[in-house]
Amino acid sequence: MTAMPRLVDTAGRPLMRAEAAAPGGRLGPDRAHEGARRTGAFQTNWRPGLTSADTWLYDRDEVIARSRDVGRNEGVGASASMRVVNAAVGFRWDFTSKPNARLLGISHEAARELGADIDALWEASAYGIHFTCDAERQLTFGGLLRMSAAHIFNDGEMVGIVEYAHDEPTRFRTRLRVIDPDRLSNPNGLPDSPTLRGGVEKNRDGVPVLYHIREGHPSDLGANASMVWRAVPRYSTNLGRPQVLHAYDKLRAGLTRGVTRFASVLKLFRSLSKYTDKTIEAAALNALFLGFVKSNAGPSATSESFSADDVSEWAEGREDYYKDNPVEVDGVQFPVLGPDDDITMQTTARDTSGFDGFTRAILRLIAAALGVTYEELSMDFSQTNYSSARAALLIAWKETLALRGLIEQQIAWPFFAAWLEEAFDIGALRIPDGAPDFYEAIDAYVEGRWRGPGRGHIDPTKEILAAAARMEAGITTMEDECADYDGSSWEEKLEQKARETARKRDLGIVADAVEASGEDPEGDRQRDERPGGRARTALQRVAEIADSADHNAFLDARPVAA
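^ thats the sequence. predicted structure below, dont judge the formating
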């Protein structure tokens, strides 16, 4: 006897008839969560699959190709990439070494001296004229980070190999080679498996141990190298010297390769591009004017006494005349119609008035997805005042700090650790007395602070006053404020200020130097007793401007459209 078929739920459990038909049941039209409904005008055909994080690997090549096309051919896409890279890296990152004195078991003075030695050697290696940090000997360390940031933003990931140039005569031979992420792939087209995905081979715990990298890009001319793979271990030695750097923002468990932020806005870019093209075409057609040379002396206007041959001879003579004497406007020749010919044109102008509003709306959506402000993306500040610009800057700065943190943790620190290992190994640096071996306390030796471009300011008067107040209240230090203002070193500023003060004394302008430094109380008292009192300091003048009603009204006033 054949069993009757029964309804089952998604887990394969049989459903009771009453449960299946009930309005609140698992197959009923109503759901406890509106987001799970399958009916209605907006959700009827919305049934995405429940996929794993690495499903991205099947779509990666198509999405990356389109995102790069946006960067090449869409000005807005190129603008977003440049804004992000310039804010996060600029053209250099500076470093201040701060070895951990407590972990190393040495005095703070010994740690400071070691840090100063590390800083001097790193500066010469990272930004020397021979580009010794770059395996291709073309970029400084800042340039390598700039290219890495561009790959992370546009491709979703950066792939690099730390190499050691055995045959080159430079003092330091640790190099970084940034490679195109497209070269990271499964060898010989092998399918993905639990331990091999997207060219990354993992152990049973999910730890990447081996990277399969093509010798050439898949689209390179003469594709011989592109069909050869090299398996590169994540670490080059048993002591843990970094070799493969794979940087990406892992926002979901199980994600093996980075996802570009362009993935969610490619459709918006395409719609904006198409709409822009059609609007430009319409505007061009609206600007055109059409003209024809027409004669009313056709056969219908001639006397019956003219024969057909006479009319034909007249038409030929007319045609020859306009060939020899064309009617032109700005180099464009008017066509000559035949006798009694007529053309009717549709002259209704095409409406392009909605272009500005549409593009602003689309650009705001794109900017929100890419982590930049609308003003940065479009360079349109026509509707911005101080308050809105300040709010937008704070959000954009958090995005910048997040990208910097990723670059610092996954690129800068591992490469710096490999370089510092070589510096100790070749004797350029010496282990302080009483300190452990480099490999025993590597994290303590590589401690320090990376500094990129400053945050920038909208109203310097308010920003300077706020910085002075934070330092006076003990909330921040001069090191914090210098790094935030322009990415500079506070120690270098103090040393430069000391040199300037000494130079002023040498030139005989000691009074100005002492007055500026506030180290002459008696002079201060005498100046206070003069008529009009002592001249206001620059900080006092800035405070007066920042607090003035006129200044605040100017900042909060929105620009008036021309």
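The radius of gyration is 35 Å.
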